[in-house]
Amino acid sequence: MELDRTLLAEHASHTLDGVTERALTFEVDGESCFGLLYTPADRPAGDLGFVVCHSYALEVLNLRRIERAVARALARLGHPVLAFHRRGYGDSTGLLDDASLEWHLRDTRVAAETLARETGTTRLGYVGGKFGGLIASLAARDGSAERLILMNPALTGEGYFRRMMKEMALVQLSIRDETPRKTTEDMLAELESTGMVDVLGFPIHRALYAPIKDEDLAADMGSFSGEALLFQVSKRSGTGKDTQALADRLQADGATVRVEALREPAGTTFGGVAYVSTGDPMTREDVMAPVLEGIVTVTEDWIGA
Amino acid sequence: MSSRAWQEFPVFIPLGDERLCAVVCAPAEEGHDLGVVLLTGGNYTRTHRNRMWVRTARALAERGFPSIRVDYHGVGDSTGHAFFDMEVPFDQDALAAAAFLKRAAGVRRLAIVATCFGGRSAMAAAAQEPDCIGISIYPVPLTVPKNRRPVPLRSRVRLWLKRFALGTRLLQHPRIRRLRGTVAARRDTPEIVISPRFKKDVVTVLKRGGFVTFVYGELTEDLEHLRQVVRELDPHTSPEERRRVQVDLAPGTSLLRFQTLADQDVVVTRSVAFVESLYARQPDAGARAAASPGPGG
To answer: ipTM score of the complex?
Structure first.
């Protein structure tokens, strides 16, 4: 067995429709973070770059398609983008056992430094959906970012993880095996007593839950006073109270906010499985495609303006 | 310098006009002449649920086996658009990943490990890839309706209603749910059969000398269909060929969507054990690997 390093290096990037995608890794405290760098292929890169912050659990996988589309749209318009896996997630190394909130924010800051070093950007924006929106916003609190693109961001750490636990309680109703049934309160108690709880095959660790549960974006956006694009993807019409609360907070802090409401498709939720059966039980199609297109179109318009 | 026993290389593999995003994970030192293709179900990206395939790939590399984990076209970081039909496996994606792994890692033999829809794609690819010596699949949809019919009107109405919050609430109303349940109970259940394509692919793999392992949970709902698949192999295969089929049951679980950390441990452990035992069966396997029992042993 002998590795063909030339072949591997030749295939570490590709260019499609005016955007070059290149895989890279960067080190944080001895661990390796996986990243994909999106740069314009046929125009010079601008000085404003974006870092994509992924969500948690299954949403890391389910939202990837939308994150990728936003990254490509931004890069096509001249803005380099780095999408990366924090330590303990995806293709990166490390374990989440001791991953505190500070650990998540440190990885995000190192990603921003990596983006600047690789592409020469001097101005920064963050992109994130759900839990990734919370991480992006918390990272932006220090005033380092001047743009935010948030998609159904979790406003509080406690609310986010409680919803995850509630979903588990619902899913358990349909499982026939011997897994013990637990309520949200059972799971919170287990988290407190053992330091970890298994929620649908994803661990929630006390090291993260304890420091993040009291974070509330509607109460505190720190020093962020730049431009924010806030997407609300839901089955309801009109602006929801969470979206409005965050928009109000951002505006009160001096930020410029654009709120866009998009209709959530039937059969799934934003961050849920995108490929669902639309009648024929033998087939699955991407019902989230119209949402993805809507997010891309609005983002292009917003960044162009 | 890294002291890890493995090294990883993210790549974009050509598949026609598309590019499949994949990660090759290789031993840091000398490895064995057996590479592993890791395939997910349609909804998952290459890392699989809670990084199951990342853990598996690194554990394999620590034991000397290179692997590749890949996003199907239209999924994760790959280009293109995906449309999943259980009877139209993504075998070309699997074959492209397999061919790339052979070139990149310099291996001549392959194993495929897959879950759910990936099991269909894996079996179809294994049937076409002469260098594939074994395949291990976790619960996979095995049946198809005997006669596929157009989507009924009731399903289209239900989907239309679910586009609206009010419609969704209406469908969830207990009285409506009871009514729908009563009507559904009166309806004839469509006749189903084991997927002819899947069965044919299993037979092809066995005829070529390959090993096939199904890892299911004791409580997997579809277990009876798996037993039916094994029974239906009888007229098409010899006793020697059938001996290379193993059904490995994990106790006390359904392995449903790998929704517990314990289920994920089952997958990682059994996938590594499968590859090690498959390699041990090879005439040129090293002394360490040869000490392990073979599949079915």
So the answer is: 0.95
